[in-house]
Amino acid sequence: MAEIILNSLSKTYPSGTVGVKDVSMKIENGELTVITGGQASGKSALLRSVCGLDDITSGEVYVDGTLINGVLPKDRDIAVVMQNIPLYPHLTVFDNLAYSLNLRKLPKAEIEARVNEAAAIMGLGSVLLKKPKNLSSLERQRAFLARAIARRTKIIMIDEPFKGLDDGLKNEMRTEIVKLSKRLGVNFIVAMRSSSDALVMADKIAYFEKGELVQYATPAEIYDRPATVGVATYFGRPKINIIDGVIEEGNFVGADIKIPVGERAKDYDGTGKKVYLAARGEDIAQGEQFEAKVVAVNKEYGTFTAEITPNYSLTVFADALPKEGENIRLAFKETGMLLYDFETEKLIG
């Protein structure tokens, strides 16, 4: 296990492209951390900067209190699993797992013991003599992980572990990684785009936009108290419902509805300054706050879409689904309502 501290870490490439910008975060011993965000958000850049594959522009990386900025990648006690570091096609699975250990000139008996242990952990004992081309997709992914496990490092970093896998194999691999994290007791840092997988897997989630760390929190905090509109819309399916309006006399007013919000946005009350009201589908229920027309019903997911005005509709979860075309009355649950500043898109309160 390792404690990892990033202090104002930045990486700018020679082209001027920003990889990551002023990132500070602390990863506790044994945590499974998921780095997520959209395309070019900084996920891979962060991994490459921490493991040493890319030189950082500024900032500091500490592992267990030791500054590792100047330490070579091979000496950082970090194993890396990346799509662009494939299995060698001319080597057997055994030799692929042993490759980095041979480079370190470990004793033959120790190499064999480490490889066999890693293969046993990943269920690859029966394919050690096969070449990569003869492995299934899942076996290849397991071999990537086994190669990292054989190094016996404090930290394992994985970039896009589910790329190219169908849903069934992805679910298996996701379960494997979570189990490994607990079994081995090492830090797993996983970069991926899938918000749903991040919510299921992670002890902590770091959400990035344009190289900047926007929110670093537990899955529950990310889902229930997203720090920005961007975080709120990235996590959760169907997407969170968002309406813009203003605060007047303790009420949110917008889209022809009036919702009591109490004191949570008192600094905006009566100013005319716009805000967003956001709520997930499970935080809207039948009630007496406003009327809407059901325009679509999704029986598979247990949701319906209700139109407030031609420009505003809500997606709502329900045990008993209404009929399409029906007019119903709805209400926002007080505990599930979120308010965001319209300009900054940051959470209010």
Number of helices: 8
Regarding quaternary structure, how should these chains be classified? Answer: single chain
Q: pLDDT below 50 for ≥5 consecutive residues: which ranges?
A: none
**The CATH topology of the largest domain:** Rossmann fold
Cα separation of the termini: 36 Å
Q: Could you tell me the strand content as a percent range?
A: 25-35%
Helix fraction by DSSP (H/I, runs of at least 4): 10-25%
Characterization of this structure:
- The chain has 2 domains: 4-227, P-loop containing nucleotide triphosphate hydrolases (Rossmann fold, 3-Layer(aba) Sandwich), CATH 3.40.50.300; 241-341, SH3 type barrels (Roll), CATH 2.30.30.
- With 349 residues, it is α+β, with helices and mostly antiparallel strands.
- The chain has helices spanning 43-51, 93-103, 108-121, 137-150, 167-184, 195-201, 219-224, 229-234; strands at 4-12, 18-27, 32-37, 58-63, 66-67, 78-81, 155-159, 187-192, 204-209, 212-217, 241-248, 251-254, 257-260, 275-279, 284-298, 303-309, 312-317, 327-332, 338-341.
- Strands 6-7-8-3-9-10 form a 6-stranded mixed sheet, with helices on both faces. Strands 13-12-11-14-19 form a 5-stranded antiparallel sheet.
- Helix 2 crosses helix 3 (108-121), helix 2 (93-103) packs parallel to helix 4 and helix 3 packs across helix 4 (137-150).
- The protein contains 8 helices and 19 strands.
- 24% of the residues lie in helices and 34% in strands.
